[in-house]
Structure formats: structure tokens, C-alpha cells
Amino acid sequence: MTQTTHSRMEAACSLLAESERRYLLYQLAENRRGNLEEITSRIAAWEREDDGSLDSDHRQRVYVSLAHNHLPRLADYDIIDYDLRSGDVVLKDGFDDIRPLLEQFKQTEEKPEIRERPLL
């Protein structure tokens, strides 16, 4: 394995280690695009499913985390493109490089509704 391949593999594993990033990519994989408001609501619901509560503070925390951490990080690796003003989030060609690894992560998710949804 070359240093470049090794570095890319480490970066991909690091990106996918965070659950909110994986949840974001699972959703985008369905249509290759999404709206940040809908994605935020869905991630917040997945995270809060255990206790059934979905409060606006938790949803806001997810939104801030996506907007200031996860979206920029994925964009830096050319996996997504996004526009905070419109809320549009779109997969880029770089996603295809991490798709097989994302599929492996998906099979180990605790939530059955995530494991059972196919990556398109």
C-alpha cells in the first residue's frame, strides 16, 4: 500500500467514525442530494429515538454541528458540496471512493432502520 493510499484510507475512516457524518451520508446516498433542514431533523430524530424526545435544542445542536463541522469537513475531501443559504447538500464524485467503506459501517449500526435501508 502506498503512502497516498494509506493516507486516503485513514482519512476515510476518520471521516466515517463520527455518527452524524455517517447519518448525513446515508441520507444523501438515497438521492445524491438533500436539504439541510430535513437532514437535520432526521439525524436529530435518529439520535433521540431511544427516549422518544425531539426538542428544538437538540435539533439546533445537530444543525450547528453539521453546519460548522461535518459539512465543511466532507466538502474539504470533495465528498459533498453545500450551500448554507439555500440548504442544498449534494454528493460529489468523491463519495464513490468512500461508498464501500460507508456500506461496511452501515452494516454495524445499532439502529435497525439504518442497517436495513439500502445505499443506492
Model description:
By secondary structure, this protein is mainly α. It has helices at 3-16, 19-31, 36-48, 56-76, 95-106, 112-115; strands at residues 33-35, 80-83, 88-91. It has one domain (3-115): Arc Repressor Mutant, subunit A. The protein is built from six helices and three strands; from the N terminus they run ααβααββαα. It has a three-stranded antiparallel β-sheet. Strand 2 (80-83) and strand 3 (88-91) form a beta hairpin. The longest helix is centred in the middle third of the chain and has 21 residues, at 56-76. The protein is globular and about 40 Å long.
Can you give me a brief rundown of this structure?
This protein has 120 residues and is mainly α. The chain contains 6 helices and 3 strands. InterPro entries: DUF7344 (IPR055768).
Task: Name a few traits of the molecule.
Arc Repressor Mutant, subunit A; DUF7344 domain-containing protein; mainly alpha; 120 residues; 3-stranded antiparallel β-sheet; DUF7344
Shape annotation: globular
| Helix-strand category | mainly alpha
Largest sheet: 3 strands, antiparallel
Alpha-carbon Rg, integer: 14 Å
Helical stretch count?
A: 6
Quote the CATH topology: Arc Repressor Mutant, subunit A
Q: What oligomeric state best describes the polypeptide chains here?
A: single chain
Number of strands: 3
Strand content: 5-15%
User: N-to-C SSE series?
Assistant: HHEHHEEHH
Protein name: DUF7344 domain-containing protein
Domain DUF7344: 14-89
